[in-house]
Amino acid sequence: MPFTKTTEQSSKYNHLEKMPIAELLKNINNEDKTVPLAIEKALPQIEKLVEKIVSLLKEGGRLFYIGAGTSGRLGIVDASECPPTFGVPFDLVIGLIAGGDAAIRKAVEFAEDDKEQAWKDLSEYNINHKDVVLGIAASGTTPYVIGGLEKCNENNITTGCITCNNGSPLAKVSKYPVEVVVGPEFVTGSSRMKAGTAQKLVLNMISTTTMIQLGHVKGNKMVDMQLSNHKLVDRGVRMIMDEINVSKEVASALLKEYKNVRKAIEAYGNK
Prior knowledge:
By secondary structure, this protein is of the alpha/beta class. 50% of the residues lie in helices and 9% in strands.
């Protein structure tokens, strides 16, 4: 079956430069509305991937994201938000981008074309069979990502991917592929748009579901979050008030003493 990059096909809109602002915004919004429906079709694939991630992280494994450009940046964003949101170690979920940290802010020319570099980057973390490596590439053809997963497969490391084309080379080297087919972009080939939105939403689903399964949410609250600013401290106080039905003063004193919402709630319950 031939591989067709629908992400690269021509936009169904034309003469964008002649459209008024209102029409541009409306059409972009209409295209964005299709993304959740495309993700819905991939839910069985996402479920299988998350089940594997959870099982390995419970055994002491880690989750790695590898990608280039927009895809790499999205992985880094998701990874960097796990510690403050769920109170997990900074090295439990790790995002790597072709070209290194410099590529987070500025594109590094041809970095994504190096098929060997991802494995070198992963090797710096002493990656092993307990870990999971998730390749992110809208096109499903990025050499940096494909090469990384191929080496992981050779070393008995679980692999998965998020891509926005069916039957891509990336999906073929992934043990747990997630294919979210969003179709042509509003601006032809600009995969930072619908494809990027799809990847962000799927990453949210993967990391959030994994952290819930690992016990870092109680009820519907982020009880293990890091109290890194006044807003989060205030949120923590309100969580304690709601959970154990105490005054703001008591909740504040508990949080100040135990410096963690979960610990404060558990300590009060043990009195």
